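Item description
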Amino acid sequence: MTPSRTLRLLNELLSADPRGKRRFSLAVLLAAMASGASVALMGVAAWLISRAAEMPPVLFLQAAAVGVRFFGISRGVFRYVERLVGHDVALRMQSALRIRVYDTLSATTLIGRRRGDLLTRVVADVAAVQDLVVRVIIPTLAASLVVVGTTVMLARFNLASSLVLLVTAILAGVLLPLFAQRASRNADLAAAPTRGALADGVRELSRTATDLVAYGAEDAVLDDVLVADGQLRRQEARAAWVRGMATAGQIVAAGVAVVAALAIGGPTVAAGDLAPRLLAVIVLTPLALHEVFGAFTSAAQTWTRSRAALTRITDVLDADPIGAGDVTESEDPAPGLEMRDVSVGWPGSGVVQQDLTFHVDPGERVALVGASGVGKTTVAATAMGLIPPLAGSLRRANRVGYLAQDAHIFTTSVAENVRIGNKDATDQQVALALMGAGLELPADRLIGEAGATLSGGERRRLALARVLADNRELLILDEPTEHLDTATARALMEDVWRAAEGRAALVITHDPELIAACDRVVRLA
């Protein structure tokens, strides 16, 4: 993503809030006032100490003493309020971007997506907006105001030292951060994709750990995760090394500013052109000013990483939608499912199956069988309307229920999990759905993450209860007995067939016993 595209996106997000630009301007002003108060505190304190050394009447020092207290207190107050306002702006922008991402994802199907990488984009990459606003843009704009103000103020006392200060400020606040950004650019750009790959690997490992251990295949998957982890650590180490070198350069620049001010100011004082008490001001003020640039190296790297993260987000926003995000209503509904010379496949990926002709009438059970990877789930997605058929005609009922092979169980109550199938389901409808699925669980019982507190059969029955929570005319069952023992599978299917009575049912399966229980079989080549 180009810098102009990044700034355009940020402006769009800022404009999404009617008061966003005013809040943003206030945050910049508060940040400048906080940094300016720190610089002023150093300058006034230096003057106060120098003037006190001359032992004047105490009344001559009171105004400066009040200034020290004011700037000492106000810098904390300004910084606190700036953090509140700045984070409020950033979080509003982050919320606006996340809503845009959700709206985009809701219009497409997630079947076949790399879930770990997608989760990283939705969570971590969207949060890059907050880093850009709070750690890059606001501090940079505020520091620019402070540098100009400090240089102008010191120029009133000694022009030469103020110019040296301006040069060292440009070195520490602009050139060294740019050097760090260029030197670690490749590592920073690669960090976000590497983090997504690591998330994919960890997700796969956590979901399949039991099977991997059972078949002795855990080492290969662990090695893949460790490779991604090693790449990320090397990228982070490279960025940290560059950041350290640039920070060292900033410290040297601050030292140069102090020594130069002393070298210029000393002879000026000796010549009588500068008041002795002001020498401490022009020597010590650069220390406070250079503290403002302390986080600029990290901010420059954050700019690169955030742009890379936002590029991944815009890839999601700009991508052509794949099918639909939900079951769509058929323009020519049928009581069950009817396909005539249908070709199926994912948009842009070619045909997976072609010339499919079959029907599923109400009360019928039709098995859809074929080797793994032949396109059974693609046929199901087409039947539901998640992706359009590439050729042929398709008619189906409008009210479709889908029992997914890997239906996700949410960390909430049993009732709320059932309401995934019908958000408006009453308590009575939830109870009837649980009864129809043969699941004897209290509706208010809380379920652990991914259904960890349920058995395999209970998870499948809970997914079935979602389907039964609404009146469905067509049921599509994707491997309903997968990973279940024979007794559990038979008991489950007895409840499924009872619930499916009078409805059209398309069953995707490899189970011979389940195939035998169906009225007809459609085999995919």
User: Anything to note?
Assistant: The two ends are 44 Å apart (CA to CA). The chain has a mean pLDDT of 86. The first helix runs from residue 3 to 15.
